[in-house]
Amino acid sequence: MIKEKLISNINSIEHYPDPGAKRLRETLATKNNVSSNNIILTNGAAELIHIIGYQLQKQRVLILEPTFSEYYTTCTTFGCQVEQLLYEELHTNIEIFNRFPNVKAIFICNPSNPSGEILTNEQLELLIQEAEKNDAYIIIDEAFYDFLEDGFSYVHLIHRYPNMIILRSLTKMYGLAGLRIGYGIMSPKLVCQLSLFLPHWNVNSLAILAGEMIEDLDDFVQHTRAYVKKEREFVFSKLSQLGFEHSNSKVNYFLLRDPQYEDQKELLQFCMEKGIVPRHTYNFNTLEGKWLRFAIKKKEENQMLLGALTEWKRHN
Ligand SMILES: Cc1ncc(COP(=O)(O)O)c(C=O)c1O
Asked: Measuring from atom 2 of ligand 1, which residue has the nearest CA?
C-alpha cells in the first residue's frame, strides 16, 4: 500500500520537501497523544542518535549494554566519555549516579536490541527518576516498540520528565529502511535545541508521504503484532524442546545459543549453509559470539529455521 502511493506520487521528488512536515508531525502527535511541538522528525532514528551525540559532546554518558552499537560509536565520535552498565547489573545496582558521578545521559534500548527483552516498569521508572534528579537526559530507544504485543511505550512520561527523549523508527514495522524515516518525542524545549543540529530538508518528500500513511495502517500493525507473537511462541516452544537457550524476547527477533558451545561460530556457519543468515554478536558488548540473533519471520521461514536447528541437533 505504501509502495503504490509512493509510485503514484513519484513526481513530488522534483520539489523540495516541506521542511516543517506539518501534517506528518500532526499525524505522529495524534498517534502518540502528544502535541506536534513534542515531535522532531529525522532521517531514520539513526539521525536522531547522531544529533543527540552532538548535543552531548565531550560529556560523560552511560549506556546500558549489550545494545545497539550506534550509541557507543556516535558518543565516542563526539568525544564523550562512555560508561557501560550491564542490564543484569540493574537488579543489584540502582545507585547509578553514585557509581557514575556526573553522567549527563543514559541510553536505554527498550525493547532491547539484540535480546528483544524489556525492562520492568519499576526498573525504568527508577532510572528515569534518578536521571531527572541528577539533571541527566534519559534516552529510551523504542525503535521496535511497534512489535510489542500491547504496544506499550513510555511516551506518556515526557510531560513529567523534561529530560526524557523517546526515539522511534518507522523503518522497522513499515519496512522503510532504505527510505529513512524516524522521529523523537520530547519536550518542546528539547525539540528546539536538537532541531538546530539538523540540516534543512533532512527528511525527503517520499519519506514524509510514507509517514503520513501510517495513520491508516493500524490494522496492519495489529495483525503483524499478533502474527509475530503467535509465531514467536511457537518457535520458542520448539527451541526449548530441542535444547537451545533463547532470550525472553517480546518482539520480532531473539537471541539463541546452543549451550553445548561457548562460541556459536559453527552454528552460524551451519545456518548459512542452509540459506539462513543469523546476526553474529561479536560486536555486542559481553555477547561476543556467545549468542546469535535470529528474526521471527513468516511461518514457512520459521519452519525452515526450526528444520535446520533440528538437523544441527541431530549431529551435535
Ligand atoms: C535499536 C535501534 N535503534 C535505532 C535504529 C536505527 O533505525 P533507523 O532505521 O530508523 O535509523 C536501529 C537500526 O537497526 C536499531 O536497531
From this structure: 143
